[in-house]
Fold:
Amino acid sequence: MRFKMTFVSITFAVQKSFPEMNNRRSFRRKYLYKLLKKIGVRNMGFMTGEEFSSGVDFACKLDQDDYLSSYRQEFYHPRDTIYLDGNSLGLFSHRAEKKLLQALKEWQELAIAGWTKAEPPWFWYGEKLGELTAPLLGAKTRETIVTGSTTLNIHQLIATLYQPETIGHEILIDELNFPSDHYAVKSQLKLLGGDPDKDLIVVKSVDGVTIAEEDIIEKFSQKVGLALLPSVQYQSGQLLDIERLTEAAHRHNIIIGFDLAHSIGAVPHQLSDLGVDFAVWCNYKYLNAGPGAVGGLYLNNKHLGREPALAGWWGHDKSTQFEMKKDFRSADTAGALQIGTIPVLSSAPLFGSLEMINEIGIEKVRERSLKLTGYLLYLIEKRLSGLKIDFSVNTPLEPERRGGHIALRPHREAYKINEALKDRGIIGDFREPDTIRLAPSPLYTSFQDIWKSVDELREIVINDKYQEFSSSRSEVT
Ligand SMILES: Cc1ncc(COP(=O)(O)O)c(C=O)c1O
Structure:
């Protein structure tokens, strides 16, 4: 309570002294954070909006008091590990296993008849999984389809929606966007006769860690035809303001799409209501559908009925698909953007994951996710301050600006520190050049896991344990 009061009064004082900052919310927060740091206020855990205490008994109590703690038992946990890498590859659940085994049994017993007689029929897997994913996106069933992979779906959507002859000829992306998104956008520009050096607008990050919405909006113009942005930035965990960006893009007739790889399953969305044009995601992170699991795409109602640029028989109107006509008759849903046969075995586990998330409700999942990351931020501030290695946090502290993971930046030796963590069974991941990402899964990470991870981190630094590890990189970090 005392923290909250302090925060409110300092915010008020800052707003009064610098009124020009009042219409720039994120900038104001950032400024406030810097100002507090400058005047020596070290404990900023209160900015997470949670009140915590630092003992392990408090972590136990948080676990006991949360009814969602029981979902932890739904997952297989690798032996002797605390798994904080669910934003790269989520853990295997019993329900996912059950659905996968069911698909294998159907293959065994039904063979080809599985396409129509499996439960649900494999022929409709993409549509059925789309229907179950739609609530996580705030989308309509017909706008959502499970198919392809994030990168493949970016290609399909850009090729279908970007028409430089009728809309602006430039494509906008941000500097920090995932490499595959950059590659896809550049190659699409080339395919359509553009020149990435001139026609690709790359919005720069001011701090190298986050992208300011203001800077993106400043680059919107009638020359921009399409924008592809992340919902949550994969390195820092910054959550962008999708509503604000969509409104601004539409004022310039820009088609706007989001890569939801780091938000789906952790953050709720309102894609239909906001009129977002398109979105893509993968299902192997917070949706725990397995390594290389099938991806998904959303296409707003207003674009349905458009012929896909990359047509394939799986996007054909299903009622006549097997007439085998040579003329393509497009499905009238987002399903039209499917290209080839759905990979049944890498889709089946997703049924189990979506059943679990829909049972809880995505809003509750987000609530728990924020509490876990808030607690982690609090412990970082409380227990890692003043050590010989200084830790900074690259993730925005405000709950409405952070996704599901926390990006920690030790001021040196990040790779070695992460290796030392792994050696102790704490699995986060390292991202070049100097970031350790820790992702508490709202479904299976406990508050005690968080407490123990920070405790080990503290011990690794205090006793120079990271010095025992090499900084030569492995093939996959
Ligand atoms: C933000 C983001 N976009 C795109 C991708 C690429 O996904 P895929 O390999 O499934 O196409 C990833 C993979 O981790 C990602 O994190």
About this structure: The pocket of pyridoxal-5'-phosphate is lined by residues 149-151, 178, 180-181, 230, 234, 259, 261-262, 282, 295 (CB under 6 Å). The first strand starts at residue 82 and ends at 83. The domain at 96-360 is CATH 3.40.640.10 (Aspartate Aminotransferase; domain 2).
